[in-house]
Amino acid sequence: MIRNLVGRWWSSPRTRLRIARVLVVAGIVLVLVAFATTRWGFVFAGILLIGFGAAAGPARIRPRGGPAEPPR
Questions:
Q1: CB of 34 within 8 A of CB of 42?
Q2: What angle in degrees, to the nearest 10, is found between the helix axes of 13-37 and 40-55?
Q3: Rounded to whole angstroms, how far apart are CA atoms 34 and 15?
Q4: For this UniProt entry, which segments traverse the membrane (predicted)?
Q5: Is residue 23 exposed (0-12), middle (13-18) or buried (19+ Cβ within 10 Å)?
Q6: What is the DSSP string of 3-51?
Q7: Among residues 20, 28, 24, 30, which one has the least CA distance to residue 59?
């Protein structure tokens, strides 16, 4: 039941876009703070957050019915 609810919530492009933006902004802020304080581990963590945000974007949504039709 909970899995189905989360799956429907996460499949919304608007929700995925908002979460992706939050992850990317948090990653950028973390990288900037890390550069200012010379914490190189936080730079790496910020780069990972930016990558996770890019991977979570709505462009990653695939149709549920099967493979998509080729573009025309």
A1: yes
A2: 170
A3: 28
A4: 20-36
A5: buried
A6: HHHHHHHHT-HHHHHHHHHHHHHHHHHHHHHHHHHT-HHHHHHHHHHHH
A7: 20
Which amino acid belongs to residue 36?
Answer: A
Residues 19 and 49: beta-carbon distance below 8 Å:
no
Three-state SS at 60: helix
Token pair for 19: 């979460």
pLDDT tens per residue, range 3-41: 666 666 666 777 788 888 888 999 999 999 999 998 889
